[in-house]
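Bumping with the actual sequence this time:
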Amino acid sequence: MWQKFMVEVILKIKVPKGAKGVFVDTIQDTTGYIDEDFNLEFLLQRDQPMRITGYRKAVGKYGKSYFEVDVELITSGSTKASINIATTAAADNVVDSVRRRGHLIVAEGEVKEKIIASDLNIDIEKATKYKEAIRGYTGNDYEYIREYQQNQLKNYPGFKLKDYYKEQGELIEEYIANSPKWEGSPLYRGIKVDDKTFNNLKIGTVLDQGGVSSWSDNINIANSFAVNFENDRKAIVFRIQSTNKATSIRHISTITGENEVLMSKSAKQVITGIQKSFGELDGEKYEKWIISVKELEE
């Protein structure tokens, strides 16, 4: 039976002299497919047509194989490209059912619904729902969505809060499930905890983040959420090296500078290390704990 298998394709782009408005990062980690005859086919993420000038198999972090495809921008042509690859080159550990990438960097002013629709191959109506749920989460809805997921949210007279935040949380979980999973530098999550919670954090402890959780590949962002100068809570920064349960929302978030990566509420981690450290913010030093975690497989 004829099948297509998804693989990772990294485009190496040669930009013509004088070209303007080209954002190379928007085309990183393009979806590719290998059929039963080992033909690699991929669709470019933007309308800019390109010409293939070469390709090679490569191995990235954690031993995962992918293809590097050399392309150059041209002024006309199709945005669909294909390459015939030798069976031996394609068959060796290339097929990977998990599509991955880092942050999707987009131009200021680009319509987010169109970016999401193109990225996930969905219609604008669905993309708009994803966008609104995620921007709500990164705005004022963060606490309410997590409270609902923890079964702590109450309805108030005249407001069906539970129904609304249930839908928003489900849309976010759906977006995470359907989007390329995070690949890149380690992720960090900063929180403040009381002494009782801190004393329960030991190597081997299994963690549940209590709903969809926010992480960043910038440790300074995590530090800013963990720091506590009043000394009534402990500053905790979780660190995870890799995950199959998270995706970048930097291109959708209301605060792009946080480099935010959303992790599914279904993700569970086990503590593998605890290290006491010190940080400094605005000239003041503070005590913090770096807690290394590893994602548990389902």
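The tokens above came from a reply further down the thread. Residues 1-7, 15-47, 75-96 have pLDDT under 50 and may be disordered.
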